[in-house]
Amino acid sequence: MQHNTLVYIAVMSAVTLSVKILPLTLIRRPIKSRFVRSFLYYVPYVTLAVMTFPAIVQATDLPLAGAIALIVGIVAAWFGASLFQVAATCCVLVLIIEFLML
Amino acid sequence: MSQVFASGNGILARHGKAIKEGMRDGVPIGAGYFVVAFSLGIAARSAGLTPWEGFVASLLNNASAGEYAAFTLMAANASYLELAVVTLIANARYLLMSTALSQRFSPKTGTLHRVLVGFDVTDELFGIAIARPGMVDPFYSYGAFVPALSGWSVGTALGIAMGNVLPARAVSALSVALYGMFLAIIIPPARQNRIVLGCVVVSFAASLLFTVVPALAGLSAGTRTIVLTVAISSAAALLFPVSDEELQHDEEDADAA
């Protein structure tokens, strides 16, 4: 059976949007459970950390460039650089390192 | 531009500052999205999508791993049910993020704002919304959505239309922009809270382990993210439950700001 591209897009969009929108619209009250509250407090940090490493080292053509961007990015964020500054610093570092070494 | 935001009694006068801040923070996200979406477009092209179809799919989904998996299945002529299940698994972490966001919305915030903010929950847009102190301001998120959704949808369409025309050096350099943003979101709180710092270090180590150990490396990136998020956040919540004072403290900081 051949499938229709527009139906494919409708199915994937319906699933994605339900996952994103339903909790936000259905959960109207503060969650009482201390465990759940603590769990949700830690979720963003853990998720973003898991997605950052080692992916950043695998994303660049030269793993060393990604590793240096990771370390310098951590130091810059630690000392209060903004979102844009940290992102731009990482990009420029990779550009320079790969330009010199590849 | 600033005059438009400063004058009048409309939405811009009341919410212009939040919209502007959102747009500012959304620009690096949109730039990073553009590059990722461009390579996503190449996968969509193999699945037979036209640039318009890719544009619409990315506008409605804005989910890199989920869309990539879906396009791969389309190329393989998979069933609609298969597509639905795989999309659900690849995007399951957004259930957690949307639930976390629900706890940072004022109970007074109406359904329309909740639907609209939920519409574009992504790792990055969730990250910057939750990083702001106090209750989530929907207008800050709307501001960030403009560059983010533009970069994502247009990038996908251009990827389908033009294939890979960016020089390899530029693609490689821009590919770390997203991770730089993640660092800017997680490191400052980790500096202030030792438990958060511990969570970040453990997450890095566990994620590395799941990438290099052959038995675990077969998991997709989306599955790995949700398994580790649930495991590590649960352990942290059991061992170091957050006190109500700490959560309230966050909210007081917001009121003072």
Beta-strand proportion of chain A: under 5%
Major beta sheet of chain B, specifics? none
Q: Tell me the series of helices and strands of chain B, N- to C-terminal.
A: HHHHHHHHHHHHHHH
Mean pLDDT of chain A: 91
By secondary-structure content and strand pairing, the structural class of chain A works out as mainly alpha
Shape of chain A: flat
Low-confidence parts of chain B: 1-7, 251-257
What do you see in this structure?
- The complex is a heterodimer of chains A (102) and B (257).
- By secondary structure, chain A is mainly α.
- Chain A has one domain (5-101).
- Chain A has helices at 5-26, 34-52, 55-59, 63-78, 83-101.
- In chain A, helix 4 (63-78) packs antiparallel against helix 5.
- Chain A is flat.
- The N and C termini of chain A lie far apart (48 Å).
- The model of chain A has no long low-confidence stretch (mean pLDDT 91).
- In chain B, 80% of the residues lie in helices and 0% in strands.
- Chain B has 257 residues and is mainly alpha-helical.
- Chain B has helices at 2-6, 11-46, 51-61, 64-75, 80-90, 93-102, 111-119, 123-131, 138-162, 168-174, 177-192, 194-212, 214-217, 221-239, 244-256.
- The chains are: A mainly alpha (102), B mainly alpha (257).
- The interface between A and B is large, with 83 and 104 residues.
